[in-house]
Backbone:
């Protein structure tokens, strides 16, 4: 988590939900915690690789919009070395 004070918004808290697609017992616990966090979210930012939009990402968008939350999608690119 990272928090800061935005001049026009007030306090802002960023929560990285890495591991939302984990497997196994620990992964299941992380996923459950992430879904609870989404219920308290004002804005969801989904970061994914360009060209890799799938059912998983769409389910996140659907869950957030179902909770009446705003969503921003960021597509990353990989540069050749």
Residues:
């Amino acid at each position: 988590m990272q928090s800061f004070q935005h001049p026009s918004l007030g306090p802002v808290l960023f929560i990285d939900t890495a591991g939302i697609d984990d497997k196994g017992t620990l992964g299941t616990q992380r996923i459950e915690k992430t879904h609870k966090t989404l219920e308290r979210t004002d804005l969801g930012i989904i970061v994914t690789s360009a060209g890799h939009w799938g059912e998983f990402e769409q389910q996140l968008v659907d869950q957030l919009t179902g909770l009446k939350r705003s969503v921003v999608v960021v597509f990353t690119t990989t540069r050749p070395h």
Notes: Residues 24-39 form the longest helix (16 residues).
